Amino acid sequence: EMRCLEEALTAEKERLREQSSAQEARAAQQAEETERLRQREQQLLEMQERLNLDRQGLREREAELAQVAQAREVLQEQLRRRSEELAERQKVLAEQGRLRTEETAALELRRAELEQQRRQGEEELVAERRRLEERAGELERRSAELAQREENLQNQFNHLKETGRKLGAARKELSQERARLEAEHREMDVTAARTRSSLETLREEVSQVVGRLPELEQKAQASTEGLARARDQLRKHLAELHAYARQSHEDLEILRAQVQADSERVRQQRQVLVRDRDEHRLAVAAFRQQMIEWQEQLGQMRRTLAQDETRLELRQAQVEADTARLAKQAEDLQVQERAVAQKRDEVDRHLIDMREWYRRKLRELTQRHQAEGEGETRRPGEEETVKGEGRGNKEETPETESVAGTALPHAPAVPDILTLTGEVDPADRHLGELLRSLELVEADTLTALLVEARKQRRSLRQILLASGCVTLYQLALIEAGNLDGLMLGPVRVVDRLRVTAHEIQYRVFDPRRVQDSHDGPGAFVVLRHLAEAEMHDPIRPDEFRQRFAAAAGIRHPHLAATLEVLEVAGRPAVLQEWVAGLSSADWPPLAAVPGVWFRLVCQAALGLHTAHQAGLVHGHLEPGRFLLNGQGLLKVCGFGEPPWLSSTPAADQPADDHLADLLALGQVAAGWAALAAPKRKGARPKPLPEPMQAILYRLTPEAGENRYLSASLLLEDLDRQSANVPSNTEAWDRLLRHVRDQEAEEKGIRQSA
């Protein structure tokens, strides 16, 4: 691919040079044409100069006429401004008179208010005096009544005393009457005291009112004086207004006289202007006749000039268009060159990283073999012989070994391995040279691998395949010299898993997902690449991108993750999680144990519920879509996959909705429950408990309206039955051991550096 890009870039550069040469020749031709046009332009400029002189004379005549018209307009403008000033001044005088009238009305209103307040004050004062006089008369009357009552009481007391002296003999009989009279007397004294206190209070109030009378009289007098002053001020204002009105009237008369004089002067000037206008019309008529003749000559010159200018402009526009087009092409070529350079740099960087990755893997393989060789112990009585020069009974390791016709560097001494000195197998020699030419292995690493192959009496190809560092597909690409096939975009191909009419599936190593200094298991993913034949379909490439992009936003432990949607070689591709586990189609009968079956269905329902909540529908659930790993984690695969990618025939696929997924889960779960093998011939498998059979029944079409409408309802029923389901821990552990054993047997690729 890189060689093709380099050839395309070389061809593009050659085409660019040819275009540049053609552009230079075209530029020289355009320069000659420009020189001819410049001479023609000089002639046109001379003609234009003569025309400008004629135009200058016309402009001078027009300027004289414009000056006369301007003087007339200035005079008219002065008259208009004078009239506007007079009108404005008259408006100001009218406004001032209106303001004075409003002020006079306001003063009159204020005077009326003050007069009203004065009258109200006098009326209140008279009413207060009348009320005080009435209260004073009432107090005097009550005082006279109290004095009369005191006098009556005193007369009664004297009469009683006289009666007591006369009736001394009957004092004992009248003691009670006396006590009563004394009590009445005391009550009368209390009443008299209260009356005196009220009288004193009234006298004090009267004295206070009498004390306020001077103040009220002063306020009334001050109000009267203020009213008098306001009247005087109002008279002064009225006098000023009358004087100002007389002055304004006199000014207006003067202005009227001035306006009449100005009008007379304007009338005379207008007569002069009319006379000058008539003379000017005659001169303009003669000038127009002359102008018509000049315009005919000028029109002829303009037509000639326009024809020349049109041809010149067309030529210039063509030159500018060619220049812009060539500049645009050069700019596009530069952009393409930069894009090709960036792509080439990226390809080179990925190629260097991939070569270093292979070199590191093979180097670590060699180190592992050396470590295994150093760890072996020598058997008792075993001796080694070294061909070549010896020094007594002392054993030595040769400094170099002749392998593949080249001097191999010194290898670590291994006492129990014979020195190898033979010719390398031609197939190994060819493979080694190919690895060296592709820069996938270092010289000392290749030497060590060839030595190890000779030790094990196997070919280099067998050593590489048996180590797990290189897969058969990788080795086939290397032997074919197809180094570009080892890379697909940013990822490195490990193995080709599946080829269909719609897509190709690879197991790849993604260096962007390395978790630490070594290759973590998360760096190995599955790349699904759309087939080239599908790119001719108008719908399927976009559907491939959109469906997998929707699935890329979901992360859940029970769903196989879609990691990224990208473009590889102009076709859409998707990176998905590498799920290592055992398909439900290969599960042993342990999956039918109630506790194990319950755990598997719960995990599958959780994954299904998560996908449905995100708006995804599977549409083609089958036993092969459920994988169980050695840690007991069930993963549902295939969400986001277009229906036409599925291996299930189109006629057998269920409807693309949530209910169809639940029905498909019911069929798969029923298959898990039917895995139990009979213990003896003719015996029937042990059925599931009733609650679990009820759940399984609601996942079948026979349930009708009672079937589950969503995965959340299924999870609720499973949660309610969890306390009643036996754990069956031993069966679960046995199933996981079986899964781990199967993973160990089928693991053909070491997930390490």
Number of domains: 3
Strand content: 5-15%
Series of H and E elements: HHEEHHHHEEEEHEEEHEEHHHH
Q: How helix-rich are the residues, as a percent range?
A: 55-70%
- Report Rg: 63 Å
Mean pLDDT: 77
Sheet with the most strands, sense and barrel status: 6 strands, antiparallel
Uncertain parts: 377-421, 516-520, 649-654, 678-683, 748-753
- The helix tally amounts to 12
According to DSSP, the number of beta strands is 11
Class from helix and strand fractions: alpha+beta
Biggest sheet: strand arrangement: 3-4-5-6-8-7
In whole angstroms, the N-to-C terminal distance is 27 Å
* Morphology: flat
Quick gist of this model?
With 753 residues, the chain is of the alpha+beta class. It has 3 domains: 2-161 and 183-341; 489-578, Phosphorylase Kinase, domain 1; 580-753, Orthogonal Bundle (Transferase(Phosphotransferase), domain 1), CATH 1.10.510.
How would you describe this protein?
Helices cover 65% and strands 7% of the residues. The chain has 753 residues and is α+β, with helices and mostly antiparallel strands. It folds into 3 domains: 319 residues; 90 residues, Phosphorylase Kinase, domain 1, CATH 3.30.200; 174 residues, Transferase(Phosphotransferase), domain 1 (Orthogonal Bundle), CATH 1.10.510.10. The strands form 3 sheets. It has a 6-stranded antiparallel beta sheet with strand order 3-4-5-6-8-7. It has a 3-stranded antiparallel beta sheet with strand order 9-10-11. A hairpin with a 2-residue loop joins strand 7 and strand 8. Helix 2 crosses helix 4 and helix 8 packs antiparallel against helix 11. The two termini are 27 Å apart.
